[in-house]
Structure formats: structure tokens, C-alpha cells
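Input record (one chain):
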Amino acid sequence: MKLQLRGYFIELPPWGISLFMAMIIFMPVIAQNNAGTARGVVRDSVHNYAMPSATVSIYRSENGALVSYQLSNNFGKFLFKELPVGVALRIVATNVGYGATKKEFIIREETKEIDLNTLVMERQPLALKEVTIEGAPPPVLMRGDTLEFNADAFKLDSNAVVEDMLKKLPGITVWNDGVITVNGKKINKLLVDGKEFFDAQGKIALQNLAKDAVKKVQVYEDKNNPDPMEVKTDMNIVLKKDKKEGVFGKISGSGGTTKRYDANGMISYFSPGNQVSVVGAVNNVNKTADNVNTLVQINSFKGQGINNDYHSDFTRAGTIVYKAAGFTALHDFSRNENDKVDTNNLRLESFLTSNKAAVDQHLHTTIALGGNKQLNQAIVNNSASRVNEQVFHAAYDKKFDHLHLNAAYDFQHGTSGSVNIMSNTTSGDTGDVQSRNNDQQHAAASNTVHAGKISLISNRYTDFATHRNRSVDMSLDYWFNVNHLNDDRDRITDFISRDTTESEHFNRHYLTESTGISHNISHSFNNILGLGQRIDPGLRIDVKNLLMYYSKAETDAVSDFSDSNGKYVPNTSLSTHIDTKVIDYRPGIDLTKYITHRLSNRYRKVWKFEFFAQAQVYKFDNTSLQAFQNLNRSYFYFIPAAAIGYNNYQTGKFRENYELTYNTNVTFPTLQQWAPLVDDANVSFISYGNLNLQPAYSHDVSFNYEYNNGEAKDPFLGRVNVSMGLTDHYITDSIFYDELGRSVYFPVNVSGEHHYAVGGSIQKAFKYEEHQLQFSAKPKFSYLQYASGLNGSFYETKRYTWLANADLTYTYKDLIAQVGETLYNNKNVRPGLNEYNYRNWKTYGSVAYMMPKGLFINSRIDFNKSISTNTEDIYFTIWNIDAGYRFLKGNNGEVKISGLDLLHQNKNVYNSISANSITNGTVNVLQQYFMITLAYYPRKFGLRKK
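The corresponding structure, as predicted from the sequence alone:
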């Protein structure tokens, strides 16, 4: 079915945007018109002390359902909003070491508020024992500095996973991008029983662990974080004692029309001492993954809002056959007693992938030459490639009392083969064909990488017997990389010119073997004034050193086919042996001053002033059989950095952070920019070097502002970033074109480069009972201006880039719906010469609904609009839909029917622009197919019963 969208493309007019924002702002207000409030204070019965951090919960009297909860403030006061009116309610106050206090009440419809006065709490002899209220545990407790949520206090479907539970916990928001906030605090790290659970992001735990396996959720600040400006909050999921061992996984197979297939398998096992995952995948529907943990996440069980995040990539060029298999394993050598967490583990990972891709491109390029002249090129490019890769990773992590040791080793081996056939026809302004360039390449390569790193960190501690600091506060890192490459290529080029004297033919063979080795040492001797001091001097001085050494040995054997004797003859101008050595040494002193103002449980304000005085010594040495490549260059630069920061944390209200930074950086030319071997077989683009090229020195200033509120029900996260800079001796290109479409490239230094960028993000959520509305927006604009050469003249080049995304997500029980807009715009301007622009605009909507009795439906529709210079606007729609049924105990079985690109409109649009050229065209992409999937999710938590 074909749908013409020119008249149906969704685009909000100004009044529509205003209405859209008004809905966001006033929807919660409308919902709160019939809501009531309750206030009061909690006090100790003996001394009449105000009780801070007491848990105050409100339940419905008729069925005991939890309505809301909060912790009393520093004065023992509490204030509940959005409570039901005219309904019998029960308020319960609990605290560690106290008996529970409860009171029944009703908020009258006439007043919509009630003052509960004082709730008096009496001490209990068993101060550390938790209190249960009529069989229902308190939903939250404050144990010292740790906020604890009791999982059993929140009732969900028996098949729910941890992510479903977190979405129901008051004060916790799981944002669409995976970020978790608790009362406005962003979670930095999610752990299970104090450890990473398969992946560092915590997604595997969120989407696989059953809610019924969780005992409690703990939220606390990371006390080991040395930077007072960056307050990190961690979340720890504590499993029940009989659920600390389990398995989960997925086995699925799919078959579809147009010979499409997709199969996945994953099984994972965990216990207090071990974590193991085995996973595999094979498909020809443009689904790929880069590592084992990504495949594990893809095969996660998930609960409500069944995944809509692993459909075929319809924007990817070509058709791809993907195969992968791997495993990951972690063994914990520590012995945990009384829930104490020690770090002493070994992690292993192996991953094998195989990719086959076929790409067919038909492109048209317009090249501006100045003086109203231009070239037009019609390009047909067909390629087929295969890539096989093996990856192995091992890491050991051990923490002592005041020492942290981390060691890692990585091995990667890959082989590849490709065939690329390209035809380029160049025409002038009149449309007359000037030349044709037919180029065919066959390549086979292998690449092997060995890499490793050892990190040692020691922390200063206080000897309380002498009240002096002990040990050395320092970090020492060493890492290396060994890269061995073999590349075997054949290239046949036929350049046919209108002027037959300019026609050329090449039949060239390339054989390259290279080995690159790098060694790097980084050392930081921290806070040297604090050693042995009885009092913190307030000024922190760190002495830092970074030494990087790189060497590369490369042999290039190039030969040309001789028609006279029918053999390949060595090409002495391109054959060579090169030895390159680079030394990069950066010593520096970092001065940091913190000024802190703090009032317990009220606020914390921190100023930070930092200046990093750093020098850079750079030495480049190259020897070659080609005399012009024998280079020896040495440089010395001063590359300082500075920062001013301010952090304002108002407990329970908001947190904001300001930071102004200044950085410098040097970009050194490479051998290919200084003195490359010029390959004339690359007729269309011949690259020369520039021995006079100087390093580019950049100055950058940036300002960052972040804000997040502490409201449990309606959290807000905001960030603004503004940056600007300039570069001395900016390295740019100078290109010469002839009328046959051939170009010659030289790198040159220019002055006057400057750039700036403005970006940020806004995330706002509204919650009312089981309704939640999330709004997210992430805009960014960047600008770059520099001079570049074209046929002997220099032009100012201006590049504008816009990126923007905004979406609105509504959640109610088992329903999730989302609408959004995405914009990408790129424009290159050379005043008086050319202006090229292209824009991709997408309006999308999606819905996921888990119906009763295991039925579910997912659907997403994307309205795409492509606008580009020299072409007509293109509209097309991609609509995907899944409908399925989950069955068996625990919903472990699944059958699903999918329709992908239902309207059969996916367009193979290709756009690209540079300083003086624009390319438009088409490329083969995945298109409509239908598929049926059968899947089984083995899941069991609590394997051993005592």
C-alpha cells in the first residue's frame, strides 16, 4: 500500500506548539483540583524532640493500599498533597527504634485539607528491629545516611521485574534515556548486593531480576568520591537471602517473508560468587551488537512496556548478515560476612562476530569551482564485504584497605575481505562528459591487537593515635598497545578522458605489513601538602606526569602489472620501509582550592578554584627508504587549563552546579600530512603533503550549568552548555580541481578559525497516582568558521549544524505512549561561491500496551522528511507493529507476529555535504517484511533451598 504523505506530514504550527506546552504545564494542575492535603509533626514521647527522617505513610483504610509516603523534615514536619478527599485514610509513622503510631482520618470535600497535629512516637527496647504495621512493612526507612525502600510494601504483578518496581516507587523516576533519579538525585551507579550485575549500566538487573526476588532498595551517597563538587549517589538492590542465586535467559527463533530470519539465545547464571552469561545471535534483518552485554540486554525479559528498542535498522545502508556468539564470566574471590562487600574479582569475556554486507549506491555530486563554474559527477558504487572478529577481555580488580589494584588485558583479531567497484562520470556546466573513471578494488586484510593496562591507586588515611595522615595519595597507570596489520590489495583503474592524451590505466598491487607499539605511563602524586599534616591545609597540590611513546615499523611493497612481460614489476617510488617514533611528555602541577559552607541536613555550598600548569614536549622522528620522508621534528608548548566551579545543594529542595573552564590543546601533523607517498592510481583525489605544516594550537572556554530539583513527585533535570574557542595555525585543505574532475589536495595552515556551540537538555516529569507524563528535549547548535583553498583562492567556510530532539511520554499502568520530533540540519556556506544545505526531519509516535492475560501490542510510526539542495523534498513513512501473547507460568513463553515497514515506503536516501560539494543519491536499504517469532524465557530465582 502506498501512502502519499505530502499532505499528511505532521508539523506543529506555532499555536499547536503553544497548546502542546500548555497541556504539559496545566495537566497536573487540572488533576490536582480534587486533591486534598494533610499536615502534622512527629515527636518523641519522652523528650518531646522533633523526629527528623521518620517514615510517614498513608494507606486507604478499606484495603490497606499505600497512597503516599514521605520522610519528615529536620523539624519533624510532614505535608502531603494530592490525597483523595472524602475517603477513610490511615496515617502511620515509623522509625528505627520506635514503636509505630497510627491515626485514622478523612479529608473533607469542603476544606480539602486537614491538620493532624502531633504524632507521638514511643521508644522500643529492641531499637534495631524493624516494625511491621498490620502485616504491611513500612515502605521506606532512613538508616543513617541510607534511604531504604522495602520492596514487599509495593504490590505488583507477580511477573514484574525490578524496572517495573522502581517506576512504582514514590520519589523514583526512571527516565526514557535510562537515567534514574531519586528525589531529584541522579543515580550514578546501580549495584546488586553491592556489586555490578553483569553490566556497569545496570540495565540487565533492571530488566531481568524479578521484583519478588528483591528485599529492599538502598540509596546513598558515595563516601569514597574525592571530589566534593561531584556528589555521586548510588543505588543498591538487596536480594532476599533465598533469591541470591538464579538463572534467566531467552531462546527465540523468527522466520519471515523475503527469506528473512532472526534467531537469538542467551542463558545467564548468578550467585554471590559468580556471574556467567552465554549468548548467540544470527539474522539478516540489520540487527547488530558490539559486545556480549549488549546482546544480553537485547534478550532481556523486560516487563511492562515490552521492548520496542531492537527492531531492524531501516536507516542503515545495505543488507547485512550478522552472526555473533560469546560469553562473559565473573568470579568473586572475596568472602562476604554480615553483608560486608569486598572487591576481589576476575572478569572474562569472549566475543566472536561475522558480518557480510552488500551496498549499492547511485550518487550525484555537484562541485563548486568558483566563477559560476561547477562539475557534476554521476557515481555508481557497488561493494561487498565480510568481516570476522574475535575479541577476548580479562580484568582483575582488587581493593585493599587503602589500595586499589586493577589490571586488564584485551586481545582482538580480525580478518576482512572486500570487493569495491566504482564508476564516476564527470560532466561540465554544459552537460558534456569530460571523463569517466572506472575503479575496481579487491582487498584482504588481517589485524591483531594486544592491549593491557595496570592501575594502582593508594589513598591517604588518618592515624587517629597520632592524628596524622599516613600513606601516599597517588595513582600510577601503565598501558600498552601492540597492533599488527597485514593488507593485500589489488586495484585496477581506467581513467578515460575526452582528451585522449590524459587517459590513464593502472593495474597495481599493494602489500602492506605494519606493527605499531605504544607504551604509556601516567603518574599523579596527589595532595602533597596533606602528608603528615594535622590540619587540612585547604589547598590541594597534585604533581602529574604523562609519558607516551609510540613506534611503528611499516613495509610497503607496491608493484605494477607490465603488459610486456605479463608480470607485476616493483614500483620503486611507492615501495618503502618506514620507522616512526613519537615521544609525547606532559609534566604538570595542578593547584586546587575548595571553600565549603555546610549546615547538616540543610545545605552544602562548595566553591572550587583550579589551575593546571602543564607543559608538552613532543618529538617526531621518521626514517624511510624514500629520502623526502626522513623527518625529525621537536616541539615545546605550554598547555594550561583552569576552572571555577560552584555547587549549591539545598537538602530536599534542589541541587545546582556552575562550572567555567578554560583548556588548551595542540594537534600535531601526521606523516601523511607532512610527507605522504603519492599514489597516482587514485586519479580522482591525489593527496600531497606539506613539509612546512605547523601544529595547531586551540583555546577553548566552556560554561556548564546543571539543575535538578528535589521534588519526589514532579522531578526536573536541566542542563545548559555554552562553549567557544579559536585555533592558531588551523590545519585545513587547499584543493585544486581540473575540468576532468581530478583533484589535488594539500594541507595548509590558516589563521582565523573559530567555533562555538550551544546545547542542553530539559527533562520534566509529572506524576499523579498511576499516571506519569515525561517531557524531554535535547537541542544543540554548533558553528565553525575557517578559511580553505579552492583552485588557488581562499574562501571563508562556514558550517552550521543543528541537532534537536523532543518527546512526550505518557504512562498509565501497563500502557506507554510517546510522540516526538527529531531534527538534523547541516549547512555549509562559502559566501559568494556556494551554499549547500540538507535537513532530515522525523515525527514519530509509539505505543506499547500489555493487555490482560498476556496479550501485548507494540507499534511505532516514523514520518520522515528529507530536504536537500538540488533535490526535491522527499517524504516517506516507516511503520512497524508487533502483536503477541505471553503464556506459561511466569509469562515465560511468547509468540509474536511483526510487520516491518508496513507501508513499504522506506526510501534509500543519501545526503552528504562538504565545503564546496554536495552529494545526493540512493543506497539499498532494508524494506518491508513480515515475521513470526517464538520465544521462551527460562527464569528462576532461588535455586538452592536449605
